[in-house]
Amino acid sequence: MEIAAIIFVVFLIAVAAVTFFVLKRALKMAIRAAIVALILLIAIVGGASLWWFGADNSSEKQPANIKKSR
After folding, report:
1. Which of 2, 7, 35, 43 has the most beta carbons within 10 angstroms of its beta carbon?
2. Count of helix runs (H) and strand runs (E) in the chain
3. What is the pLDDT of residues 5-54, one digit of tens each?
4. What is the value of pTM for the model shown?
């Protein structure tokens, strides 16, 4: 799940960069910066929540004992 969190953050950073350059002529700098900051905030919160809540704790468990029969 850590990989999904990293991919999510990288994707939204790319979306923020594209949004910044697409809105270059349409909006003033303050509004553009606020939109990009909002996208980056969503990326950070979403990535952290995926990382935190998606952590797989089952990998730390001992494997079950298997008795071999003849």
Report:
1. 43
2. 2, 0
3. 888 888 988 988 888 888 877 778 888 889 889 999 999 898 888 888 87
4. 0.61
**Do the beta carbons of residue 47 and residue 6 sit within 8 Å?**
yes
What does the alpha-carbon distance between residue 1 and residue 50 come to, in Å, rounded to a whole number?
7
User: What's the confidence (pLDDT) of residue 7?
Assistant: 86
User: Cα–Cα distances in Å, from 40 out to 1, 33, 68?
Assistant: 20, 10, 54
Residues in the chain: 70
d(CA 47, CA 27): 28
User: What one-character DSSP code corresponds to residue 2?
Assistant: H
Structure tokens at 40: 């980056």
Domain boundaries, the chain: 2-53
